[in-house]
Amino acid sequence: MITTTPPADAQGVRIMQRVARSLVAAEVHAVDLPGTDADQCDFAVCTALLTSQALQMLPPGVTVDDIDAPAERDPVALLRGAEQLLRGHPAQDLPPGTASLLGDLRALIGRATA
Amino acid sequence: MTRRDHRSVGEILLDADHTARDLLPDVGDLDAAAMLRTWPEVVQTAATLWSLLPAAAQVRATGPHSAPDPIARVAAMTAALHRGSRTHRWPGPGPTDPRLRSIADSFARAAELVDRHRAPGPARNAAVHADADASRARIIHTLYITTHGMRLAILAHTRAVEATVTPWGRIPAPGGLSTPRSVLSRLDAVERVAGAYVSRTFPAALAREHRHEPYGSRIATAVAAWDVHAHRAIVANPTPGHLRLVARTQELLLGHTAVLLSAAAHAGAIDSFQYATRLEQPLDLARATWGASGRSWAEFASHAARPDSPVLTQAAAEVRAALREITIDGSTAAAPEVIASRVNLTSVAGTLATVLSSSTDLAHVVHDVVTDPAVTFPARAVNAAAVAGSTNSRGDGVPGSDAPHVNVKDLTMNRPVPLTPAVRALEVGRAEYLVAANQTAAFAASWLPTFTAATERRQKATATRRSRSPQPARARAGAAAPRR
After folding, report:
1. Domain boundary residue among B157, B189, B208?
2. Considering only CB atoms, which chain A residues are within 8 Å of B245?
3. N or C, fewer C-beta in 10 Å, chain A?
């Protein structure tokens, strides 16, 4: 049977690529975040660390080169988008460490909106 | 190779607690059957950890559900539930729940740590008992929250099954309605047992949980490790991701340096006049130039994101944690008095003086990268930078910029290519500014005490303070002072 739906693990990889791409975009737009330079800098460093975490979870050889940049510019909305991407997918299809990434992502969103 | 887990038992249990709390907002997405399959493992690992903790302090019984050892009751109830579920069609065999698995893993890891490090014989230290009580409170709180999440998930499952009942009363779902309803009432009992313990102990028991005091040398160690890994990463593998992370972390480091030096000036640990007139502005400028560099490399990295070196990310995270431990109070910036109470500002000022010189050196390394024609970057990143560089503020192309910036084949394959002359000129200019700003800040900080001088001055200050103490104490202090 021919199907256009990729296998579950491939979908999981695709989700992680889009998550990483959203995180990279959030870091680029950290300067748009309201608050002091120190707040923006801390947000950018945390987002960079989360990006590293997400990229480490991709299989070897898989990058985010082919993923289009999200149109969204608001850094917190980009993080929320990444969170929704992870939440909208069955956890068992995502790589180990997703729960930790999700926890860190939620913590950063919480701090940025506090 | 797996990374070593450096978390303490308290941190691991906090993590498990957070994972359990994370279940509650996602009730609609939870798989009740998968959770039910994983639950016995969670309880078993919790019971193992509980059995390894030093014996509980006496708990005064105040009600029907206040037995001193709730874990034994929860374990017995879960074992009975598990035995019964084997004979039912629901939940049956199938996948387990990853979050409950993660909680069980946390309990198992904490048990391993406690078992490895506990002293033989009964613990007599009150602080050890208080910490064990806090761990017990966390374990039961995690089980309580997890049980609640499971009950909500099973309730949602029951409602979904109810919706499938045919007009003739037939229930197509395996296990029908009776099994989940029976599980629900049994979990209700577990939740009540756990809830009774939680209501007595949580969060009061956490107040006496052991916490590491921030130690001054943590900043020095973190900064030294960061310096080594940042240099290594840029020299050995100058990817846009590494350059971005280094620039961002340097910006953060110099920002916190300003906060700490300002607190040191406020407390009189360093010369406040020199700081305000000579160092404050150059330091802020150096921080801002790293910020600009970070933004530029983040644009590059967005076209070429590759996994960053784990040791570099770990070192960056440790620098951030070590600094925030001192400079942040709750969710806001700590007051200078609070900072002064947490760390010896004179010795920290000595450490931070070295940060400024190593920052200049890192700026030189970045300059070397952008001037080296052998260093390549992904074609799409170079092209995007070239397009951005050849566009004026109105978004129009600059005359003469019609020629393609990067070979189309390279662009399609995103091959590594050297910087175009225009992009190189731009990046070199930025790197030169980075070097100049950091050099200026390092020169402006030349009056800061070096670590040795700072230590000596601290010792003198300590000796002066102690000279006001009664004679026997002063004699002991003088005898204990190390010679340099």
Report:
1. B208
2. 45, 48-49, 52
3. N
